[in-house]
Amino acid sequence: GGLAAAMRADPPVLCLAGPTNGLAPPGVRWLRGYVRRLADEGRTVLLSSHALSEVEQTADHVLVLANGRLLRSSSLAALRAEAGVGSRVRTPDPDRLSAALEAAGHAYRRTEEGLAVDAAPEQVGELAAAHGIVLHALTETGGLEKAFFQLIEQSGPAKGSVSAEGELS
Fold first, then answer.
1. What is the pLDDT of residues 106-126, one digit of tens each?
2. What is the pLDDT of residues 125-168, one digit of tens each?
3. Of 146, 95, 101, which is closest to residue 128 (Cα–Cα)?
4. CA–CA dist 85, 52 (Å, integer)
Protein backbone atom coordinates (compact mmCIF):
# COMPACT_ATOMS: atom_id res chain seq x y z
CA GLY A 1 0.00 0.00 0.00
CA GLY A 2 1.84 3.05 1.36
CA LEU A 3 5.34 1.75 0.68
CA ALA A 4 4.48 0.87 -2.91
CA ALA A 5 3.02 4.36 -3.48
CA ALA A 6 6.15 5.98 -2.00
CA MET A 7 8.38 3.82 -4.21
CA ARG A 8 6.49 4.88 -7.35
CA ALA A 9 6.88 8.55 -6.37
CA ASP A 10 10.69 8.11 -6.23
CA PRO A 11 11.06 10.51 -3.26
CA PRO A 12 14.28 12.25 -2.15
CA VAL A 13 13.22 11.59 1.48
CA LEU A 14 11.38 8.48 2.64
CA CYS A 15 9.89 8.09 6.15
CA LEU A 16 9.10 4.55 7.31
CA ALA A 17 7.46 3.56 10.61
CA GLY A 18 7.97 -0.09 11.55
CA PRO A 19 8.34 -1.08 7.92
CA THR A 20 9.23 -4.71 8.55
CA ASN A 21 6.19 -5.46 10.75
CA GLY A 22 4.41 -8.44 9.23
CA LEU A 23 7.02 -9.09 6.55
CA ALA A 24 8.44 -12.55 6.01
CA PRO A 25 12.27 -12.84 6.24
CA PRO A 26 12.78 -12.52 2.46
CA GLY A 27 10.72 -9.31 2.50
CA VAL A 28 12.74 -7.91 5.40
CA ARG A 29 15.99 -8.65 3.54
CA TRP A 30 14.66 -7.05 0.35
CA LEU A 31 13.47 -3.93 2.21
CA ARG A 32 16.85 -3.49 3.93
CA GLY A 33 18.59 -3.70 0.57
CA TYR A 34 16.13 -1.27 -0.99
CA VAL A 35 16.53 1.42 1.68
CA ARG A 36 20.31 0.94 1.65
CA ARG A 37 20.33 1.55 -2.14
CA LEU A 38 18.24 4.70 -1.68
CA ALA A 39 20.67 6.00 0.93
CA ASP A 40 23.66 5.12 -1.25
CA GLU A 41 22.06 7.24 -4.01
CA GLY A 42 22.14 10.23 -1.65
CA ARG A 43 18.55 10.09 -0.47
CA THR A 44 17.47 10.24 3.17
CA VAL A 45 15.50 7.38 4.71
CA LEU A 46 14.06 7.90 8.19
CA LEU A 47 13.17 4.63 9.88
CA SER A 48 11.21 4.64 13.13
CA SER A 49 11.09 1.39 15.06
CA HIS A 50 11.03 -0.22 18.48
CA ALA A 51 12.92 -3.16 16.97
CA LEU A 52 16.47 -2.10 17.84
CA SER A 53 18.05 -4.92 15.87
CA GLU A 54 16.23 -3.65 12.78
CA VAL A 55 17.58 -0.14 13.36
CA GLU A 56 21.09 -1.43 14.04
CA GLN A 57 21.19 -3.51 10.87
CA THR A 58 19.97 -0.66 8.71
CA ALA A 59 20.82 2.80 10.06
CA ASP A 60 23.92 4.98 9.82
CA HIS A 61 22.68 7.71 12.18
CA VAL A 62 20.49 7.16 15.25
CA LEU A 63 18.09 9.40 17.16
CA VAL A 64 17.07 8.11 20.61
CA LEU A 65 13.78 9.51 21.89
CA ALA A 66 12.24 9.03 25.35
CA ASN A 67 9.32 10.76 27.00
CA GLY A 68 9.03 13.17 24.10
CA ARG A 69 12.66 14.27 24.41
CA LEU A 70 15.57 13.72 22.07
CA LEU A 71 18.22 12.01 24.20
CA ARG A 72 20.84 11.57 21.51
CA SER A 73 21.52 12.17 17.87
CA SER A 74 24.74 10.57 16.68
CA SER A 75 26.24 8.13 14.26
CA LEU A 76 25.54 4.52 15.09
CA ALA A 77 29.28 3.89 15.42
CA ALA A 78 29.74 6.77 17.90
CA LEU A 79 26.77 5.67 19.99
CA ARG A 80 28.04 2.10 20.14
CA ALA A 81 31.55 3.28 21.08
CA GLU A 82 30.16 5.51 23.82
CA ALA A 83 28.27 2.54 25.26
CA GLY A 84 31.43 0.48 25.44
CA VAL A 85 30.69 -1.77 22.52
CA GLY A 86 33.59 -4.11 22.11
CA SER A 87 34.67 -7.47 20.80
CA ARG A 88 35.63 -10.92 21.96
CA VAL A 89 38.37 -12.45 19.82
CA ARG A 90 39.78 -15.94 19.63
CA THR A 91 43.03 -16.37 17.71
CA PRO A 92 45.85 -18.92 17.61
CA ASP A 93 48.28 -15.97 17.89
CA PRO A 94 47.11 -13.77 20.79
CA ASP A 95 50.57 -12.22 21.28
CA ARG A 96 50.70 -10.81 17.72
CA LEU A 97 47.14 -9.57 17.94
CA SER A 98 47.86 -7.97 21.33
CA ALA A 99 50.87 -6.14 19.86
CA ALA A 100 48.79 -4.91 16.89
CA LEU A 101 46.00 -3.75 19.21
CA GLU A 102 48.46 -1.87 21.41
CA ALA A 103 50.09 -0.21 18.39
CA ALA A 104 46.66 0.92 17.18
CA GLY A 105 45.73 2.29 20.61
CA HIS A 106 42.98 -0.22 21.43
CA ALA A 107 42.63 -1.36 25.04
CA TYR A 108 42.24 -5.11 25.56
CA ARG A 109 42.47 -7.78 28.24
CA ARG A 110 43.11 -11.48 28.07
CA THR A 111 40.30 -13.86 28.99
CA GLU A 112 39.99 -17.64 29.13
CA GLU A 113 38.56 -17.63 25.60
CA GLY A 114 40.98 -15.13 24.04
CA LEU A 115 40.92 -11.35 24.15
CA ALA A 116 38.27 -8.82 25.16
CA VAL A 117 38.86 -5.67 23.09
CA ASP A 118 37.42 -2.19 23.56
CA ALA A 119 36.84 -1.73 19.83
CA ALA A 120 34.12 -2.70 17.37
CA PRO A 121 34.47 -6.06 15.60
CA GLU A 122 34.95 -4.29 12.27
CA GLN A 123 38.00 -2.47 13.62
CA VAL A 124 39.48 -5.62 15.15
CA GLY A 125 38.86 -7.69 12.01
CA GLU A 126 40.42 -5.09 9.73
CA LEU A 127 43.43 -4.73 12.01
CA ALA A 128 43.93 -8.50 12.15
CA ALA A 129 43.63 -8.74 8.36
CA ALA A 130 46.13 -5.93 7.83
CA HIS A 131 48.65 -7.84 9.97
CA GLY A 132 47.87 -11.28 8.54
CA ILE A 133 46.57 -12.57 11.89
CA VAL A 134 44.18 -15.53 11.73
CA LEU A 135 40.98 -15.18 13.78
CA HIS A 136 38.94 -18.18 14.85
CA ALA A 137 36.13 -16.12 16.37
CA LEU A 138 35.17 -12.45 16.47
CA THR A 139 31.95 -11.40 18.21
CA GLU A 140 30.44 -8.16 19.39
CA THR A 141 29.97 -7.68 23.14
CA GLY A 142 27.37 -4.92 22.99
CA GLY A 143 25.30 -3.03 20.51
CA LEU A 144 22.56 -0.49 20.01
CA GLU A 145 20.38 -2.16 22.64
CA LYS A 146 23.07 -1.69 25.29
CA ALA A 147 23.62 1.95 24.27
CA PHE A 148 19.87 2.58 24.12
CA PHE A 149 19.19 1.31 27.62
CA GLN A 150 22.16 3.19 29.05
CA LEU A 151 20.75 6.43 27.64
CA ILE A 152 17.25 5.65 28.91
CA GLU A 153 18.55 4.85 32.41
CA GLN A 154 20.59 8.06 32.48
CA SER A 155 17.56 10.13 31.49
CA GLY A 156 15.51 9.09 34.53
CA PRO A 157 12.42 6.95 35.06
CA ALA A 158 10.45 6.01 31.96
CA LYS A 159 6.98 7.57 31.65
CA GLY A 160 5.73 5.91 28.51
CA SER A 161 7.12 4.46 25.38
CA VAL A 162 10.59 4.92 24.03
CA SER A 163 11.85 4.39 20.54
CA ALA A 164 14.92 4.50 18.42
CA GLU A 165 14.91 5.99 14.99
CA GLY A 166 17.52 5.42 12.38
CA GLU A 167 18.52 7.45 9.41
CA LEU A 168 20.50 6.29 6.43
CA SER A 169 22.46 8.92 4.61
1. 888 888 889 988 888 999 999
2. 999 999 999 999 999 887 777 788 888 888 776 544 555 566 55
3. 101
4. 15
Environment class of 87 (CB within 10 Å of its CB; exposed 0-12, middle 13-18, buried 19+): buried
User: For residue 167, what are the β-bridge partners?
Assistant: 46, 61
End-to-end CA distance of the chain, in Å? 25
3-state helix, strand, coil in the chain (%, to 5): 40, 25, 30
Tens digit of each residue's pLDDT (9 = 90 or more) over 43-88: 888 888 877 777 777 788 888 888 888 988 988 777 877 777 788 9
pTM, to two decimals: 0.59
Helices (H), 1-141: 2-9, 25-40, 52-58, 76-82, 94-104, 121-130
Partners of residue 164 on adjacent β-strands: 49, 64
The single-letter DSSP state of residue 168 is E
Q: What is the DSSP string of 10-30?
A: --SEEEEESTTTT--HHHHHH
From 6, 20, 14, 2, select the one nearest 41 (Cα to Cα): 14
